[in-house]
Specification:
The protein is 0% helix and 52% strand. The chain is mostly beta strands and 209 residues long. The strands form four sheets. It has a five-stranded mixed β-sheet, with no helix packed on it. It starts with 23 loop residues before the first strand and ends with a strand.
Length: 209
């Protein structure tokens, strides 16, 4: 007779799977300064190429909806005590959107003007500005803006925070610069090889290549 001592170890793996519908939009809203979630935000989703125009107030820190059309979406968010922020996304057939949006408390924000020009001082309308900031050790897109026909746009930013600014336009190469918005106005020059921004009330220009 033979005796055996047998032992068994069992490992259980638990997975969470999120299934999104085609045309789904899921937005999570965070406080830019603290990184915490925000409840009660008002959201508007406008399709500039279609008929979608949705406005809702979130009961929680996220919002979910579905749309049945493609196009360029303008997503505007605001809440009590926070400055308005706008984000731009593209919805295409068979796609869904899931992203984090960040709002900045009004008490911590400064309205900052950006004017976009090319290297021969022509105003650049339709340029898209994306602002990134490190939050909880992760680089997050916290704000967006698009210039109008005058090449200008205003954005609420924290004048004590370090941002990465990314400027894109179909007719120019992508440009990036890191800066702290201590001034209230900047000029951004798009060229083929470098980017410069200057305080409009200063004579100093800063070039980044």
């Amino acid at each position: 007779q033979e005796n055996y001592n047998l032992s068994f170890n069992q490992t259980y793996l638990e997975y969470e799977v999120n299934l999104w519908e085609t045309g789904a939009i899921k937005v999570y809203v965070y406080d830019e300064s603290t990184g915490g979630l925000i409840n009660g935000t008002t959201i508007n989703i406008l399709n500039t190429d279609g008929t979608t125009d949705i406005t809702a107030t979130m009961n929680t820190s996220s919002y979910y909806t579905t749309i049945n059309e493609s196009g360029n979406l303008t997503i505007t968010l605001n809440g009590g005590g926070y400055s308005e922020r706008v984000f731009y996304e593209v919805m295409t057939t068979g796609r869904y959107l899931v992203f984090n949006a960040y709002l900045l408390e009004t008490a911590n924000s400064q309205l900052t003007t950006f004017q976009i020009l090319n290297d021969i001082n022509q105003l650049v309308g339709g340029a898209q500005l994306s602002f990134y900031k490190t939050i909880n050790n992760s680089l997050e897109r916290v704000a967006m803006a698009q210039t109008d026909f005058s090449g200008s746009v205003q954005v609420n930013l924290d004048n004590n925070a370090l941002y990465l600014l990314r400027v894109t336009h179909n007719d120019y190469l992508q440009k990036e610069v890191s800066f702290i918005p201590t001034a209230t106005s900047y000029q951004v020059y798009l060229t083929g090889t470098s980017l410069a921004y200057s305080n409009m009330f200063d004579t100093i220009n800063y070039y980044f290549t």
